[in-house]
Each structure stands twice: as structure tokens, then as C-alpha cells.
Amino acid sequence: MSQDMSAIVEILVNEKLVDEQMMDQAMGLAIAAALRARRLSPPNPWVGAVVLSASGEVVGRGSTQAPGGSHAEVAALLEAGESARDGVLVVTLEPCNHQGRTPACTEQIIAAGITRVVVAIEDPDPLVAGSGIERLRSAGLQVSLGTRAAEVRDQLAPYLHQRLTGRAFCVVKTAMSLDARSVARDGTSQWITGPEARVDAHNLRADSQAVIIGAGTALADSPSLNARDADPPATRQPNRVLLDARGRVPATGPLFDQSIAATIVFTTVSADPSAVAAWREAGALVEVVEPQGSGVHLEQVLQVLASKYGVLQAMVEGGAAMHAAFIEASLMDRVVAYVAPTFLGREARLAFDLDGPSTLGDASKWRIADTMLVGSDIRITLDPVVAAEELS
Which active-site residues does the annotation give? Predict the structure, then answer.
């Protein structure tokens, strides 16, 4: 290769590296913008977008608005105005190509004069599923896919799971001692963890569209299940979901106060008819599903929450038996455990009351996704190994 040709190759390589670095940084800004829409956009995905002018300057940023409002791409294009022409759009999720509550984003991107679109991941929703990228390319736009894809898959895990499986993403939250106990010998459980951990748990509620408990927890604690101390404050309260196969829980107390948030009760045909009537009279929504053992069919619960109520993430705050039921049904998509620096002893109740495997080789496999000190406690986030592989 001649010296002149080598110089040209070096210039091209350097230009490519500079371009990749610029797109990587712009995608980082889009990821940050998406985070701001986390509690606002469901049942739509939380998406972020950035517009770069023809000279590479950031001229527009946007995130998905509440349902019926602008999608991230359109919000960023509106901020950019005429500066978007001949520019680049960087977006965390494939733009939609269909008319929903708002017009197709692809047509608005084309009309804005954008020449290049950088997308982190495809949208698995059947209404999109590659058609957005195809439409942009057919209009002559350059489209690349995969920039910071792993980060975006992690950020959008609940949405991706819901669209791919038809079930709400199931997060089990528990607070326990170092010896994995959640209730002391005398029945006391409040509070194992400190105030900082409890505030953090309210943030987890605010990030969810449903909080699930069983009849035992409802009878023992009479909870309200709202996100009270979230920072930033919850834009909408999650649905409170009660699983009561037999109609044990009376329609009284904070759980049935509709001024706090909506209440959905999942039950079976075996439930006491007078209890079902009382739930409805109190304003609760009642869903009848198939029985599963002595309880309700958990997979159907997650399917109905996803399809009928638009729930992307459901947080389970039941007791040890409910946690075990979700594990044994292979429906637990994430565990968030707040571990307090204390011991409660063998006579205290376990945080997960399950039989477990007969041998170590049959034990379920999990990966530690995150650990964080929260006040005096440790928060451990775990994902199933299979789910982690599917989303990689």
C-alpha cells in the first residue's frame, strides 16, 4: 500500500472512530432522557431521543410523554426545529410505523429532513417489529442498529418482557435478616430494614404499575400499597392487586379505598359470592381466573394485568408462601432483596418458604445484577440466568 493510500485509510478509520464515539455519547444522552419518562410513559415504553445537527451539535432532546402525548423522537424533533434538517436522530428504541394515539413517528422523522437514524434496539411489539427501520430505509435514510444495546435492553427489560411473553414483568421484593428471615418469632415484621430501604422500596413501587399481595398479607397488615415516599414523586399510583381465591378478605380498610388507587382482586369460582359482591360494591375490579392449588393461577394473573390493564411491571410484596409460589411457577423475573444486618434465628419465618431442590445441581440459577448500600442495609438485585441470556 502506498504512503498516500495509507494516509487515506488512517483518516477514514479516525473519522469512523470519532463518529462512533459521537453516536455513543449521544445515545448516552438518550438513555438518560428515557429514564426521566420511566414513571410517566407506561403502558408505552420509556424512550429517549437526541437530535444532532448536520454539524454534530445537540439541538434537540426528548422523552416519551404520558399516553396520548408525543413520543420521544417527536419531542426531540420539535425542540430541534429546522436545525434537525440533514441531521441525525439517535433513539433508544425503534421508531413506530403505525397510527396509534399519535401519528407514526417514522413519517414525522422523514418529514423533518433527518438523513440518519441511530437506534439501540428493535421494538418487539408486533405492530413495529422491524417495520419502523424498514420504512426509514425505504425513504432513503441511513439506519444503524445496536449502539449501547445492552444498556437499553436492561433499561427496558419490563417492556421487552411484556411484549415478548404477554405477561407483566414480575419483580419480587422482600426484606429480610442475614439468615433470610422476614418475620420474628413473635410475629413482628416492622421494621426489619431502616428508613432508607423503605424509601427505596417506595421508589420500586412507583416504577411499577401494579403491586401484588395475597390474602394473608392483606389480613395481617391492612396495607394501602401506594407509593408514598418516592423521589421523584409517583406520577400515578400503581394498581393494588389482591390475590384471594376463596374470598377471605373483607372489602374494608385502605386496600379498598379507591381514593388512594385502583384495586383489582383476582379470585376463582370458589370464592364466597357475598365477598365478591362486597368487593365490587367497594369499587374494586374483580377478575375470575382458574385456580392453581389452593390459590389463583399466577400466570393468568400476570397475563391479564398485561393485556387488560397495560401493566409492564408488577411488584410482588406478599409473604413467604407467595414468594415461593412465584418461584415454583418460574414466574419471578427479578428479585429485589433488602438485607438487614441482623439475625432472627431458626424459629423466625423464612423470607421464601419453598421446598427447594433435592440436590444442589437442580437449584435455580440467578445472577447478581446489582448491589447497593441503602442506609444500614444492602439491596441485592437478582435476575434469573435464563432471562438474562434471553435479553442479551
Answer: 73
